[in-house]
Amino acid sequence: MISDIVNAISGVFAFLTTPVSWVIVQFHKVFGAVFGPDTGWAWGLSIVSLVVLIRICLIPLFVKQIKATRNMQLLQPQMKAIQERYKTDKQRQSEEMMKLYKETGTNPLSSCLPILVQSPFFFALYHTLSGIADNKKIGVIDQSLLDSAQKAHIFGAPLAAKFTDSASEVAKMGASLTDVRVVTAIMIILMSASQFYTQRQLMTKNVDLTVKTPFMQQQKMLMYVFPLIFLFMGINFPVGVLVYWLTTNVWTMGQQMTVISRNPTPGSKAQAKMLEVLQKHVVTHSSTRTKRERNIVKGIVAKGRDRNEQERKFINGLSKAGLAAQADGTVVKSSAATEVLDEDGMPAGTPKRQQPKRQSKSQRQTGVTAPGAKPEPSSPAKPSLEKKDEPEDAAPQAKQGGSTPATGANGRSKAKSGQRKGQQRSKSSSKK
Fold first, then answer.
1. Do 322 and 282 meet the contact criterion of CB atoms below 8 Å apart?
2. pLDDT score recorded for residue 411
3. Contact, 42 vs 31, CB < 8 A?
């Protein structure tokens, strides 16, 4: 079933058979002069060289893939908010998603471009090797090259042999079924394992762990799904196609390792590792010695308070060593270490501003200061509006202006606490 589907798709891309076979023949001439024209090394290395040539041409698309994948990771919180907001209106949800992609310049299909562009060459190679297995001239491969390719064996397995071939079909190619099964099984396992490791490397090292999004769950699922797909489809691939796909996976794995180590996702484990190594190098030499180092430092300084935890640790590490990072990416020695920033981007040890505790009503009336609250500045005592009962015989005494304990030498009456200054109006004794 799978073999029939692959054959049908290969027929669609049969127009690429001629250029693909021509490239293989040119490389075969070079390696055939070294290892012999009928050897598996000559034909196998020709297929490997075809992969390398295609992947070099796809490097610009690979860069776009990395940027698109990173942008998709950064947009996940906003995408999730749109889904929650318009979960009952799918059309509006799609419109808002497309608007978000347009505003941020993100193309979701960019992450699939290398695979989509490479697939036609993969199926064209499959079509070419199938023609060799059926003893058919195909592309620029004439009868002499066809005979040479059929004699070529990789560790005892012919280039056109498959895991599902019968003993009689393998015998026609001059090989044993055991050799074919062992070689193809090992190559299929290596192909699936390399695919799994490549995806796992992306998930564990180059993902911002501070953001939990559905995109991460999707990537984790693909980490297990893709290797299983290659495992079941690999038994229908010829040995030459397995060489092609295994080489592709190894190339992707190495290319991704290079990108992760040199340009990791902000907030990921890979960035923490890169900044740790960079910090040791800068502290050792007391300067940034390459353009790449200056660009990294320049980008971190430009972020200011928007730095993540790893970037703050990097700046603080330079500060403790008596170095100061400059806006142009250079590092200069400082007579005094610069301020170490805390997680909020403020100088470490800066006391946080606290609001004074609110006083109760009784404390405000009595003037008692609450613990931790700043005492209020002294102010003139406010006159009490409450009327106090006074004895009736006190009124004539006040009118006479005689000397009282509250009267000074100059004849002026001192204001008591809680009373108005000046003449007091006596309280009427008559009660109704």
1. no
2. 45
3. yes
The Cα–Cα gap between 46 and 302 comes to 48
Binned at pLDDT 50, 70 and 90, residue 262 comes out as confident
Using DSSP, state whether 211 is helix, strand or coil.
coil
**Residue 159 confidence (pLDDT) above 80:** yes
Question: Are the C-beta atoms of 32 and 42 separated by less than 8 Å?
Answer: yes
For residue 197, the surrounding DSSP H or E stretch is helix 177-205
Query: Which residue would you say has higher pLDDT here, 262 or 375?
Result: 262
Separation of alpha carbons 256 and 241, rounded Å? 22
Determine the pLDDT at residue 2: 57
How many whole angstroms separate alpha carbon 51 and alpha carbon 143?
A: 25
| Angstrom distances, CA of residue 210 to CA of 146, 155, 202, 269 | 56, 48, 15, 11
Q: CB–CB of 300/316 below 8 Å?
A: no
Radius of gyration of the chain (CA): 42
DSSP code, position 329: S
How confident is residue 392, by pLDDT bands cut at 50, 70 and 90?
very low
The long-range contacts involving 258-264, CB below 8 angstroms and separated by at least 24 positions, are: 259/66, 260/201, 260/202, 260/205, 260/206, 262/292, 263/66, 264/205, 264/206
Mean pLDDT across 287-315: 88
What is the number of other CB atoms lying within 10 angstroms of the CB of residue 327?
A: 9
Q: Rounded to 10 degrees, what is the CA torsion of 374, 377, 380, 383?
A: -20
pTM, two decimal places: 0.65
419, 390 in Cβ contact below 8 A? no
Nearest CA to 183 among 207, 163, 206? 163
Q: What is the DSSP letter of 324?
A: E
In angstroms, the CA 191 to CA 185 distance is 10
Place of tokens 């109760």: 360
Element (H, E) at 114: helix 113-133
Query: What is the average per-residue pLDDT within 111-138?
Result: 77
Residue 82: closest CA among 63, 101, 60, 68: 101
Contacts of 265 (CB under 8 A, 6+ apart): 70, 73, 206, 207, 208, 271
Higher pLDDT, 355 or 52: 52
| Pairwise CA distance, residues 54 & 242, whole Å | 16
Angle at alpha carbon of residue 59, lines to 55 and 64, rounded to 5°: 130
The whole-number pLDDT of residue 139 equals 83
